[in-house]
Structure formats: C-alpha cells, structure tokens
Amino acid sequence: MWEILHGIPTPFKQNTEFQSQVISGLRPHIPEGTTSRYIDLMRRCWDGNPGNRPSAENIYDNFIEWQDDENILLELSETKKKYQERIY
After folding, report:
1. What single string gives the DSSP state of each residue in 32-75?
2. Cα–Cα distance between 71 and 10 in angstroms, integer?
3. Domain residue ranges of the chain, discontinuous segments joined by +
4. Which of 62, 63, 75, 10 is nearest to 36 (CA)?
5. Model pLDDT, residue 41
6. What's the predicted TM-score (pTM) here?
7. N or C: which end of the chain has fewer CB within 10 A?
C-alpha cells in the first residue's frame, strides 16, 4: 500500500533485517496530508493479525469505488502532489 501510494519502494532494506523490523511492528512513515481513507486501508493491511487484513479482492474493490468518487480522487491527487514536492 505504501509503494502504491508513493510509486517507489519502501525505505527499508530488502533483507532479513527488513523482515525483522516488520515483525516487530515497524512500518513506513505515512506523510502528513495523506488522505484518511487511504491511511485507514493501509493500516488495515499492516495489521499484525493476518485474519484482520483485507483480502486483495477487498483492496481492489476499494480502488474501484474510489475511481468513481471525485472527492476521493481529489484527495489522492493532493496527497501525491504534496509527496512529490517533498522529494524533488
């Protein structure tokens, strides 16, 4: 979810250290200004209990619902602009 939002890999090293960090509950920083709908879905995906995480189908359904909602699209667009301003 973090990589989908930002279009780049997470800032963690991709090795056993990364796996240990995730198991310990460490998650990537969520930038200020990220739409609350996206944050809620992303945090559900990060739930420590796999049974509480949404299925791929549920995530897909959310994305489909969002693509037809002008308010959500505007929020997501603003989030992307704010993030790109920070990294460039």
Report:
1. TT--HHHHHHHHHHT-SSGGGSPPHHHHHHHHHHHHT-HHHHHH
2. 27
3. 1-87
4. 75
5. 92
6. 0.69
7. C
